[in-house]
Amino acid sequence: MKTALLGATCALLISGSALAQTATPSAGGSAETEMSVSTKDVFTAPPGTDANTVGSIQPKDGQVLATNFIGQSVYESDKADAATVGKVNDLIFTPEGKIEAAVVGVGGFLGVGEKDVAVSPDQLQMATRSDGKTWLVMKASKDQLNSAPAFDRNKLAEGVASPGASDSGTTAPAGGGTASPPAQ
Fold it and tell me: How far apart (Å, rounded) are the C-alpha atoms in residues 88 and 119?
């Protein structure tokens, strides 16, 4: 009895996942229309590098990854007892690939009630202690950031999506299947 019950449960689980993977026809019954696509360069190659050689750019002294900025606290000064004024939530790039602004979250508690303020990148400085530890310092006070206008993300382009993304928000690859890595 237990074996039969276990077998029936497994069959239901397997058939449920198989049904979830079955493609459903579109409501109109017609094939999807191919949308036109245009491309443009997002970033420019650094001077003195061969833009056509993949992997030719190597780390240099003074360079910093964007991921080292996003999520980091920003302090009011370079003193050991400096208070935080906010946190870097994002970076805004120009169409040419240069950083135009840092989006700093200010106010609130644990992200609740926080507002984003876009500041010029020259407002941020990196403080470095003699032991090599670094942190971000802002040239503006917490009061200045709190009184600054909120940054409206909705006015920016939507960003990067999958090639097969539709208006419904799905990000399935074009062709409807699962994405697989390119052949080596």
Answer: 10
